[in-house]
Amino acid sequence: MKTQLTIALLLALATPSLAGMDWASARLEGAMSAYQTGDYRTARRGFQRLAEHGSAIAETMLGVMYAKGQGVRASAAVAAGWFHRAASRGYGPAQIALSDAFAHGQGVSRNVDDAYFWALAATTGGDRSAEASGRIRVTTLGRSLSRETRAEIGEEVHNWRPRAQRER
What pTM, to 2 d.p., does this model score? Predict the structure, then answer.
Protein backbone atom coordinates (compact mmCIF):
# COMPACT_ATOMS: atom_id res chain seq x y z
CA MET A 1 0.00 0.00 0.00
CA LYS A 2 2.81 2.39 0.92
CA THR A 3 4.55 1.60 -2.41
CA GLN A 4 1.37 2.35 -4.37
CA LEU A 5 0.98 5.69 -2.58
CA THR A 6 4.62 6.57 -3.30
CA ILE A 7 4.21 5.71 -6.99
CA ALA A 8 1.00 7.75 -7.21
CA LEU A 9 2.73 10.72 -5.56
CA LEU A 10 5.72 10.48 -7.94
CA LEU A 11 3.44 10.31 -10.96
CA ALA A 12 1.50 13.33 -9.74
CA LEU A 13 4.70 15.31 -9.30
CA ALA A 14 6.04 14.24 -12.70
CA THR A 15 2.83 15.14 -14.55
CA PRO A 16 2.67 18.76 -15.67
CA SER A 17 0.10 20.81 -13.84
CA LEU A 18 -3.10 21.29 -15.78
CA ALA A 19 -3.36 24.74 -14.24
CA GLY A 20 -0.26 25.73 -16.18
CA MET A 21 -1.63 24.38 -19.45
CA ASP A 22 -4.06 26.18 -21.68
CA TRP A 23 -7.61 24.88 -22.04
CA ALA A 24 -7.08 23.09 -25.36
CA SER A 25 -3.87 21.36 -24.26
CA ALA A 26 -5.49 20.17 -21.05
CA ARG A 27 -8.59 18.91 -22.88
CA LEU A 28 -6.47 17.19 -25.53
CA GLU A 29 -4.34 15.50 -22.88
CA GLY A 30 -7.49 14.33 -21.09
CA ALA A 31 -9.11 13.04 -24.28
CA MET A 32 -5.94 11.23 -25.37
CA SER A 33 -5.57 9.67 -21.93
CA ALA A 34 -9.20 8.51 -22.00
CA TYR A 35 -8.67 7.10 -25.51
CA GLN A 36 -5.54 5.21 -24.48
CA THR A 37 -7.34 3.62 -21.52
CA GLY A 38 -10.32 2.61 -23.67
CA ASP A 39 -12.75 5.16 -22.21
CA TYR A 40 -14.02 6.04 -25.67
CA ARG A 41 -17.11 7.89 -24.48
CA THR A 42 -15.02 10.41 -22.55
CA ALA A 43 -12.46 10.57 -25.34
CA ARG A 44 -15.14 11.26 -27.96
CA ARG A 45 -16.66 14.08 -25.89
CA GLY A 46 -13.23 15.66 -25.42
CA PHE A 47 -12.27 15.33 -29.08
CA GLN A 48 -15.68 16.59 -30.20
CA ARG A 49 -15.34 19.73 -28.09
CA LEU A 50 -11.85 20.37 -29.45
CA ALA A 51 -12.99 19.72 -33.02
CA GLU A 52 -15.68 22.36 -32.56
CA HIS A 53 -12.80 24.77 -31.89
CA GLY A 54 -10.84 23.72 -34.96
CA SER A 55 -8.39 21.16 -33.60
CA ALA A 56 -7.07 19.06 -36.48
CA ILE A 57 -5.68 16.51 -34.02
CA ALA A 58 -9.11 16.05 -32.46
CA GLU A 59 -10.75 15.83 -35.88
CA THR A 60 -8.26 13.13 -36.86
CA MET A 61 -8.84 11.20 -33.66
CA LEU A 62 -12.60 11.32 -34.24
CA GLY A 63 -11.92 9.93 -37.71
CA VAL A 64 -9.89 7.11 -36.18
CA MET A 65 -12.66 6.34 -33.70
CA TYR A 66 -15.30 6.18 -36.45
CA ALA A 67 -13.03 4.12 -38.69
CA LYS A 68 -12.48 1.57 -35.92
CA GLY A 69 -15.90 1.79 -34.28
CA GLN A 70 -14.41 2.80 -30.95
CA GLY A 71 -17.21 4.16 -28.77
CA VAL A 72 -19.28 4.99 -31.87
CA ARG A 73 -20.92 3.02 -34.64
CA ALA A 74 -18.22 2.34 -37.22
CA SER A 75 -18.65 4.47 -40.32
CA ALA A 76 -15.99 4.82 -42.98
CA ALA A 77 -17.89 7.77 -44.48
CA VAL A 78 -17.99 9.70 -41.19
CA ALA A 79 -14.32 8.83 -40.60
CA ALA A 80 -13.40 10.16 -44.06
CA GLY A 81 -15.33 13.35 -43.32
CA TRP A 82 -13.33 13.96 -40.15
CA PHE A 83 -10.08 13.13 -41.94
CA HIS A 84 -10.99 15.61 -44.69
CA ARG A 85 -11.66 18.40 -42.18
CA ALA A 86 -8.28 17.89 -40.54
CA ALA A 87 -6.44 17.33 -43.84
CA SER A 88 -7.88 20.59 -45.15
CA ARG A 89 -6.20 22.32 -42.20
CA GLY A 90 -2.84 20.92 -43.33
CA TYR A 91 -2.54 18.21 -40.68
CA GLY A 92 -0.20 15.56 -42.11
CA PRO A 93 -1.50 12.45 -40.32
CA ALA A 94 -5.04 13.28 -41.50
CA GLN A 95 -3.75 13.81 -45.04
CA ILE A 96 -2.25 10.32 -44.93
CA ALA A 97 -5.49 8.83 -43.57
CA LEU A 98 -7.51 10.62 -46.26
CA SER A 99 -5.11 9.48 -48.96
CA ASP A 100 -5.59 5.90 -47.77
CA ALA A 101 -9.38 6.34 -47.75
CA PHE A 102 -9.32 7.50 -51.38
CA ALA A 103 -6.84 4.81 -52.39
CA HIS A 104 -9.03 2.04 -50.98
CA GLY A 105 -12.48 3.57 -51.43
CA GLN A 106 -13.18 3.59 -47.69
CA GLY A 107 -16.02 6.02 -46.98
CA VAL A 108 -15.35 7.85 -50.26
CA SER A 109 -15.25 6.79 -53.89
CA ARG A 110 -11.96 5.21 -54.86
CA ASN A 111 -9.97 7.95 -56.57
CA VAL A 112 -6.25 7.53 -57.18
CA ASP A 113 -5.85 11.19 -58.21
CA ASP A 114 -7.25 12.39 -54.87
CA ALA A 115 -5.24 9.78 -52.98
CA TYR A 116 -2.09 11.01 -54.72
CA PHE A 117 -2.98 14.66 -54.01
CA TRP A 118 -3.34 14.10 -50.25
CA ALA A 119 -0.25 11.90 -50.05
CA LEU A 120 1.78 14.54 -51.89
CA ALA A 121 0.34 17.29 -49.67
CA ALA A 122 1.50 15.34 -46.61
CA THR A 123 5.08 15.44 -47.90
CA THR A 124 5.16 19.25 -47.65
CA GLY A 125 3.68 19.91 -44.21
CA GLY A 126 6.67 19.60 -41.91
CA ASP A 127 5.55 16.47 -40.02
CA ARG A 128 8.44 14.05 -40.56
CA SER A 129 6.39 10.92 -40.02
CA ALA A 130 3.64 12.12 -42.37
CA GLU A 131 6.25 13.21 -44.92
CA ALA A 132 7.86 9.76 -44.90
CA SER A 133 4.48 8.01 -45.18
CA GLY A 134 3.46 10.44 -47.91
CA ARG A 135 6.59 9.75 -49.95
CA ILE A 136 5.90 6.01 -49.84
CA ARG A 137 2.30 6.54 -50.97
CA VAL A 138 3.32 9.02 -53.68
CA THR A 139 5.71 6.45 -55.12
CA THR A 140 3.17 3.64 -54.98
CA LEU A 141 0.19 5.65 -56.24
CA GLY A 142 2.26 7.47 -58.85
CA ARG A 143 2.89 4.20 -60.68
CA SER A 144 -0.75 4.16 -61.81
CA LEU A 145 -0.77 7.79 -62.97
CA SER A 146 0.64 9.31 -66.12
CA ARG A 147 3.53 11.74 -65.91
CA GLU A 148 1.17 14.53 -67.00
CA THR A 149 -1.36 13.70 -64.29
CA ARG A 150 1.38 13.58 -61.63
CA ALA A 151 2.63 16.99 -62.82
CA GLU A 152 -0.90 18.48 -62.77
CA ILE A 153 -1.54 17.20 -59.26
CA GLY A 154 1.90 18.44 -58.19
CA GLU A 155 0.96 21.91 -59.41
CA GLU A 156 -2.36 21.72 -57.54
CA VAL A 157 -0.55 20.78 -54.32
CA HIS A 158 1.98 23.57 -54.89
CA ASN A 159 -0.86 26.12 -55.17
CA TRP A 160 -2.99 24.61 -52.39
CA ARG A 161 -3.07 26.24 -48.95
CA PRO A 162 -4.49 24.81 -45.72
CA ARG A 163 -7.90 26.15 -44.77
CA ALA A 164 -6.58 28.32 -41.93
CA GLN A 165 -4.21 30.06 -44.33
CA ARG A 166 -6.92 30.54 -46.96
CA GLU A 167 -9.23 32.20 -44.42
CA ARG A 168 -6.73 34.95 -43.55
Answer: 0.83
